[in-house]
Amino acid sequence: MFWGLSSALDLYDEYLKAFNLPDDADAEVEGQPAEINILICGGADPRHVIKTMAKRYTHGRKPKLNIYLLDACVEIVARNMLLLGLALEPPESFSLVCKTHLFMDIYGNSLMRPSSHHYMAAKGLTLLRMICDEDLRQRLAPIFNIDAFKYRERDGLEMAFNYWRHPEQVFDIQRCWEHRVRVLLGPRYDHRQGAFDWDLSMTLKDREGQQICSQEYRYWRECGVAFVFPEYEHCKPNKTLAAGLSRNGRTYVHRGYVGDIQTGPFCGFGLRSSEERMHHSQHGENDYRATDVTERNLLELFHELQTQSTYEHDTTISRRYGTTQLLMTPLLSYNECDVTEGQQNYDKPWIPVPDVQIHFMSILDILELKKGTRWQDHFDIAFVAYNYYTYLSKEFFGALRERALFVMETKLLTVERKEQVQKFETNIKDLCKEAGLKPCINYQAINAKNMILKYKKTLGGEGDEKSPEEESNELDDEESNEMGLYITEIQEVQPEEIKIKQQIELNEEQPEGTSNGPIDFQDHETEKKVEDIQD
Question: Distance between CA atoms of 19 and 406, rounded to whole angstroms?
Answer without folding.
Answer: 12
